Amino acid sequence: MHEIIIGLVIAVGGSLLNFLSSKIYNAITGSSKNFIWGDKSKDLKKIKIPMNIEEIKKRVRIVVVDDEDSFPVKLFKSEGYSIDKWNKVTDVTYGKLESGFYDIIVLDIKGVAKDISSDDGLGVLESIKEKNPAQIIIAYSQYTYDLSKAHFWELADEKIAKPSDFLKMKRIIDILINTKFKPERYIDSLHQILLTNHVSEKQIKLLDSKIVNIIEKNEDPNWARILKFTDDNTKLFAQIITIGNTILKFFK
Amino acid sequence: MINIEIFKSLSKYPFIYEGKFYNSRELIQNKSCVKCKGKDCLQINSEVNVYEQNCASGYDNVFIAFGKNKFIINGIIFRTNKYISNERKKNRKDWVVSRDDVYLFINQIQDIDKNLISRINEATEKNFSIFHDFKTSMNVFFKCTEDIINNLPGSTFEQKLLNSDKPFKDLFNALELITSQLGMIDVIINPKSISFGAKRAINIYKLFDKIVKLFEHLSAKKNHVTIELKNNGSWVKNSLCYESIEFIPLILLDNAIKYSSPNSVIVIEITQQSNKAKISVKNIGPFVTFGNEQKIFEKFFRDEHAMEFSKEGIGIGLWIAQTILETHNSKLFYYKDPHASGEIGLNIFEFSLSTT
């Protein structure tokens, strides 16, 4: 009997010691080791997308912001693309661009955002890229020859000169979808933003795990609860939500 | 924008431009600089626009860059200079200047540069407003053509075009040609547009093949010239290029057709050589005049033999091609048949592109 009690005490004590050691180790190193010293953090990049690339292509949301009707929206629609056309960006619609609702923004430089930016299309491009560097933006304009508009073209992910034929436009958009519309790219961008804002590696892993849990449980994210660590940094809070929602779109 | 002529007319100080020493209107070159054997001032270069450096003899030199144009105000002695003895300062008193005065001049000339750039931009915008209107009209042409093709039988646009008759294909090809030609006008006005957009994998063989098909009926009409595209059985790999690379086959073929003798053959050879695709375009036509082999790549230069042979052209194509290839770390070379005599014979334009 005496031996059994000693055995139990040793087992319980050992387990407690193991538990406390793993907690202390995690606190010091920032790791996520569990009771049996296995890594319990979930790697966001290892989650598989439940769709093939063709399905993803059809789900990509595109918006064309152009004060003229030169973009062949009808042709793109007939080929199965999900595409909207706006004549200009207003205070109301800007939020939709900023939120990452659209995966690809095709943006003209002139006559599309005079009401919200003195720099017109360039102002919109700069502002969106600052808030969400991962947002795919195609510069679409007749002004490729204009020396003063060089920054507009340099800042964008791609360019389509106006006028261009449909097949050329389609080829450019397909290449962008195949090369840039990937969850890994958005995850990298999210990590980069977090690191730039001095968020710890441990916190980043924790955030990744929480996003993985949301994907696995197919839940809606409670960002306010998840992003408590951002404290009063509203810009960072908004950036994470924008890119986080874009990542989640791939798995819905 | 500040070039040698402007700098020369404004500078109060002697200076160096492209390795050559210039006097200013007010001050000639320092005698010590003229006699100097080391001339280490010629090596001064910097990433920043304004940079100061003392030469081995202790004189002050100020490097000033205006884009590609780089000037060095040389052989001056700032009043605060500690490397030049007072005795030498007395002997060279004309070159003793106030540092503040030099920087006042630099600030003034930088302001002139900014003003010139903004004036040129304004003028470009005004002059090319017609070009803008032309592009707007072209939009209508593009839309109508695409609507016509879209009404043909087929499930996708590409299929509809593929199944269509030759006139439809020619019409669509004309659109592609117009897109490229408009792009080339952009490059003439704004060479920066060469590197707009992202680099993407492009197969130079396929690109030439596409342009050859576009040009085939044009070349047959003009002097009955035929085009042969060969790859000598080698598979040409893709290259990572800007969209502007599409202008290269367009320019070289357009030139070759323009300057080909009647009933001759233009031969395009594209081969894979280790990690590069080597491209050569050969045609029988007028040789470039001796001594002008490099000048043909300059903006608005037309060789006299070329002008005699064809009135078309403003001497811009090869400059565009060279500028685009330089952006892709490549270079276009011109060779002529070394054994040929007379004014007409084999001309070769050659370049290579790194492949992935």
Question: Could you please describe the fold and organization of this structure?
Answer:
The complex is a heterodimer of chains A (252) and B (356). Chain A is of the alpha/beta class. Chain A has 11 helices and 5 strands, in the order H-H-E-H-E-H-E-H-E-H-E-H-H-H-H-H. In chain A, strands 2-1-3-4-5 form a 5-stranded parallel beta sheet, with helices on both faces. In chain A, helix 3 links the parallel strand 1 and strand 2. Chain B is α+β, with helices and mostly antiparallel strands and 356 residues long. Chain B has 3 domains: 119 residues, no CATH class; 69 residues, no CATH class; 159 residues, Histidine kinase-like ATPase, C-terminal domain (Heat Shock Protein 90), CATH 3.30.565.10. In chain B, the strands form 3 sheets. In chain B, strands 1, 2, 3, 4, 5 and 6 form a 6-stranded mixed beta sheet that branches. Chain B has a 5-stranded mixed beta sheet with strand order 8-10-11-13-12. Chain B has a two-stranded antiparallel sheet with strand order 7-9. In chain B, helix 5 runs antiparallel to helix 7, helix 8 runs parallel beside helix 9 and helix 9 runs antiparallel to helix 11.
> Based on CA inertia axes, which overall geometry of chain B fits?
elongated
The CATH topology name of the largest domain in chain A reads Rossmann fold
> How would you classify the quaternary structure?
heterodimer
Reading the helices and strands of chain A in chain order gives HHEHEHEHEHEHHHHH
CATH architecture of the largest domain in chain A: 3-Layer(aba) Sandwich
Instruction: Provide the CATH top-level class of the largest domain in chain A.
Output: Alpha Beta
**Count of helical regions of chain B:** 11
* Range of helix content of chain B: 40-55%
Strand percentage of chain A: 5-15%
The domain count of chain A comes to 3
* Tally of discrete structural domains of chain B: 3
Name the overall outline of chain A. elongated
